[in-house]
UniProtKB/TrEMBL annotation:
EC number per UniProt: 3.6.1.55
Cofactor(s) this protein requires: Mn(2+); Mg(2+)
Protein name, entry field: CoA pyrophosphatase
Source organism: Robertmurraya mangrovi
Domain Nudix hydrolase, residue spans: 23-160
Amino acid sequence: MEIGNIVSKINTRAPKILGSEGFTKFSVLVPLVEINQEPHILFEVRSLKLRRQPGEICFPGGRLDKSDRDEQHTAVRETSEELGIKEQSIRDILPLDYMVSPFGTIIYPYIGVIEKEHSIIPNKDEVEEIFTIPLSVLKTMKPDVHFINFKIEPNQGFPYELISGGEDYNWQTRQMEEYFYYYEDRVIWGLTAKILKHFLERINS
């Protein structure tokens, strides 16, 4: 292969996250609603019938389908399905920073405004209940921060003899922050808390 062909192949492609084709992709929406002329953020409580994370607090969202136009459409479609509203009732949809998790997933968060004249009828198969928190209250909150340490354990048969340092190789370890927000009897943590914190930082900056 000639150098010119190599340059042409690289020049005509858009860069992406290395290995991202093997990642599972999800989109979520941070829903803004107006209640008594004050902005609130809407949260879901996952159905107790769900196999994964039943009863946990989350934003509406889900996995990208092949039929979705893009990540934004996934967030809107999932919100529409979970809250029982029309896709057209969600406006001002804007992206936040996307996240690459250490567990092989990419999460694309968006904000969106749900028009107040559209009634919300949650899908009981997915949503146990919904609630809102005034944005003015959330902006005053500081989350508790806790840490999770990742331990590296190479599989049996790992070829230590092929790397410098062998079994004494100085692996780079990682620590992950977990945020906890408390509101009345609610606990918001995990991915939802990370996205909430990011959103609040953006509007407070």
